[in-house]
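Researcher: Structure for this, please.
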Amino acid sequence: MEIRERSIKTIKLISASDYYIKGHFRTYSVYPGMLLLEGVKQSATLLASCQGSSCSSPVQAGLMEELTVRFLQPVIPGDTVLFEVKAGERSGDTGRVTYEGTGTVDGSAILRAAFTVPERNCVCTSTRWK
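Model: Predicted structure, token format:
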């Protein structure tokens, strides 16, 4: 894992013993796309919390707006997915933050996603990063 001021990199190892792979397709083991999107969301939650913000809760609660996602290639057992998520600037007039994320396997893009998170009832005053 690597955390910077406005970005994070995380990894997910895809195992053949993963419960979700076994029943997704009977003749072709592929990791479900929604779980890949969940990896992007969890990375964004971690990024928000590591920035010292109490605003990770809308991301964690799944309050994503304006979601755009493209699944580019299947992910199979044995793959290691590298998630890279970047946080945009907080919009002063709407109180939203846009996150953009990618997933890659061996340098090839398998997922691109972008979503906006409302920051209602959040007080984001401190920033903390490594």
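Researcher: Any notable elements?
Model: Helices lie at 19-24, 33-50, 56-60. Confidence is low (pLDDT under 50) at residues 121-130.
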